[in-house]
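Hi F.,

I've been meaning to write this up properly since the lab meeting, where we talked about keeping a consistent format for the predictions we share between groups. The idea is simple: the sequence comes first, exactly as it goes in, then the structure tokens exactly as they come out, then a line or two of notes. No screenshots and no reformatting. I'm using this chain as the first example so we have something concrete to point to.
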Amino acid sequence: MLVEALVRTPIRRHGRLNSVLVEPFREYPGKRETHRSLRLHRRSADAQERLDEIRRHSQAPLADWRVVLENLLAATPERPRDWHEDAVTIAVPPDAVGRLHHGVDVNMDAIGRRTGCVLRMAAGAGGDDGALLRLSGSNASLGRATEEVLRLTGGVRVVSVAGGGDGKPVVEVPGGSDPSAGHVRRNEASPASDEGVVIEQVLSDRVYQPYNLTESARTIPKPAVWTKASFDRYVAALTNGRLAPHLHAAFYRRGSNHQRTVVNLLHAAFHDPAALAALSTSAFNRALAYMARHGPRARPDAQALLVRMDQHGVAMDTATFNALLGQAVKTRDLRAFDATLRLMRRRRAAPDLDTWLAFLRLFGAEEVKRYVVHAMHARGLLRRPDAVARLARELVAHDADRAALAGRDAAWLLRDVAARYGGPAAALAPPTANKMLEVLGRYGRFADCRVVLDAMRQAAPNAHGPDAVSLNTVLTHCKLQHSLGRAIAFVRRYVDPPSSSPTIASASSPPLLPAQAGEEDDKAKGPAHRTARGPLPAPIVPDTVTYHLLFETAWRDRSLRAAAVVWRYAVLARRTSWRMRRRASVAALAGLVHAGGPAPAPTRAALRTLAASLGHADDVPPGRAGPGAVAAPAADRRHHHVRRPGSRTYLGAAAARGLGDAFAGWEPALPLGVVLQEAWARDKAEALEARRRRRGGEKEAAPSDGAGGVPDAVATQGEAPSFYIPLRRKAGRAGVEASVRNKKDHRIN
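Output, unedited:
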């Protein structure tokens, strides 16, 4: 069905003089979006030129994507046509659930790669069933997978077996032909030693999922005894740990970072003589996947780890080579992809769907992607139920581009994508929907972006709703198109809780603007967070990128008070970016420079003076330094171009660290969008008043230097009315979630 739809769909041709690996250049209604597309195109072309220069210097042959495709076709076995969805259901006891999730080399993913079967775990029906394991695949793959699961877990019951086209069961259950009677295997076939294939793991162990680190990676304890289970868990703890940005400076000195430290610890673990007997394919794949995520800089480390794997005879599977192919895809290095694929064939590892999707991501030309999809169809790779939905992530951007050029709205696009790629679940999956948001944002169609986000939220009970990446995709284009109002509207709609009040505790503040915030279609009465289908899911939690985009949008809009609000919220959430801290340093220097004199040294007294000038003196508790806002006093803005020697990020970093430490355990009591909208309203009112004064002949402040200095607007000679951001204790820390902090509220001038 997908292949027939692609045949009927026209192709937007790639440039004849451009490599098929280069990102295409597109023109958009907004000139900034067009310049961004040109910049990305040139960056991609320059990268290919560098790779070609390296090839010529090494006198290596030129890689042809057609030859690579032929080799990939020859190495991929054709998938059988007798695919059965949820053909076998197995009741897994609670003590075996952890093995199937985190067993070393014997988990569900490993079994699926070896047998070609798809395994999915679902909650049990109750009692002592533990969980239900559903198997989908061909007759041969179902038989291999069922036998492997029975041999692995021991003490399981086959609940149901579907019938084939001839009326016979697709799998012959050992010990009887009546699945309804249940087949129970005891532990006689299950090894009890950790050296075997069965490794008991705790399902709730946090290290097997991304988790937050509060200390350096060096403090992760090594196990007392190296076993396959303990070694795999140690590698998972290293690769899945996420360190907050504000903790990097505390744990790593200049020249070092968390990524480099983790890679060094991985090498040390794999070269530990005491751990040689504990090496496993699962641990190697975890380490290789971590290195592949960090691009070409980690390629020598990945190659060294692969050599180590080969020296000690550890088996390499398809996932091992897929991790290496991922590094080649990041740089679109076709020659490296071809070399890895040849090594894959020599090691007799068969390419799977992930391998083909990686090959598809190499290209920027849609016509080549279509050619690859037809080859995938010829090998039967699209017969898997999840294959077409995963393929949508790679092709939907072209569909959205055609729809935007044809003037189609978002509702039509969602229906078209759902019909083409297997239903609404495939169209509204975050990886697919985010690609549509990216294209719609490039064309400035923010109303259509809202339609897509609303559709994702409505489907959230049965699927994943919009995440921070979805919101950041839209905010990126708000920043590019200098539309702070639209950015605030999206924050009000998707970040603020549904019950957020349109009022703010302020002193002498103008009325709060309604939720229009720059877009006509947002002028709706009532809470913007409810639809006709009832209450919406939880709001999106902003991340560092969210705060960075909002701060940059406010800064470019010359809305200093709005930028100060974003700064305060980001500092309290420990989510400041490097550029935010740099701009805060620039503003801090502008506030500390006195009438042509040099900037004072960043002493504690200077930081306290900075806190008083940038925000409110009560923001800094006795004995602590912590500046809060970024707006410098109006009288001192003419000195923003004066710089002090040394790092310009010092003051901003000190501000973020000091204020975050001072108010640890507290959070804003008001939603971000509400306060941000109020600040933007004041900035607009002051900018309007400034324009009136200019028309009356009054002089304004000196213009910006255009190189990261303080913006040159919204200044008034007198002190503007202030409003306060009340704080409350975070839930679970002091037992009083809604207790409002009065003495040390944040004041934004």
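Notes:
The radius of gyration is 29 Å.
The first helix runs from residue 2 to 8.

If this format works for you, I'll send the rest the same way.

G.
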